[in-house]
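Table 4 source record.
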Amino acid sequence: MSALIIERKTPKLGQDAIPSFPTNLPMGIAAAAKIWSGAIVCLATTGANSGFLVQGQSATGLVCLGVAERTYDNTYSGNTAGGITMVPRQGVYLMNVGTGVDAIAATAVGQDCFIIDDNTVGLTNGGGARSRAGVVVAVDSGTPPFSQPTGVWVLMGITGSSSAYGEPLTPLLDVVHEADYATAVALAAYTAAGGVLTANANGALAAIDGITCAAGDRVLLTTGAAAADNGLYVITSLGGASAKFVFTRAFDWLSGASLPPAVEVAVNKGTLYGSTRWFCATSGAVTVDTTACNMYPEEVTQAATLVAGTVTLTNVPLLSATKSRVSYNRTTPNTTASTVIYSASTMTPGLVGTASVVFQAQIAAGTINAADISTLNVSISNR
């Protein structure tokens, strides 16, 4: 690859990371520097540009801060260092990758990579001539479960600082993954092997949480036959009368990859789980397809109608009977004159299918108002 001469649309993975010093503050651009949209942005710590931003390049003494969201041109006559400012955006970005000894394979996930130019990274530091770009998150082949052009996803940005910006800095690890929807019930029986789930029998894939599935959709599996099966997949086959459905691990959740503790997934759509955020409650780092990954929503709200003064909720994972919280608001009151309080009388922690919350309308402690058939919005919070 070569340095940019036009703007580049650089794909970004997931939601915006929480900005942290110094990348939440405008920073000055070096004199005579032009940083194209989509280019790698670095802080120079040595030489004439020390203390100012430059485009990514093969050089030492650079600290990678992220990517430019638009083009910044400080090459005009009379412009001085710092005359134009910008805010580099940290996160996980798809970069072009070097060749030969600088080719990056999937076995490099979790390792550092190095800046070759403002849109290309490589496996080596060029014999000590290059600066660190970030951490390899995934290698994108351009074929399912990948949907972007070939390249490498790199975690760029910092969450710490040093007096000279030249010491090793802590990489940003707060990446939020995304799913189109999440499973609210168990899938049809399947066989798991090498990051691929294949249905045991032919048949079309049923709707998931009220959403009609499409090939290429990203699904958060929360109801795996084994807890290690849970996590992110891409639907690679919908199945049918003469075909089985197939799920393949998403590129940011590959089989064998190591994920940080409490890894999070934002779910965008769904009748019950739409616009929710989930986290893995397993202690410590997770090795995909090996470590049990019990996924819990931070908070879910659902409508529940009392029958004879009580209702049992079973389709929301409950992390703890003592630490999880249950609250409500009554939306359609019916017979409530005698009800003194609505309360969760019994909370059984577990995942979907094993967790349950018994909600009651009570006249007094332990006494149910059987005449109450109100509808409530019940919120369950696991964080």
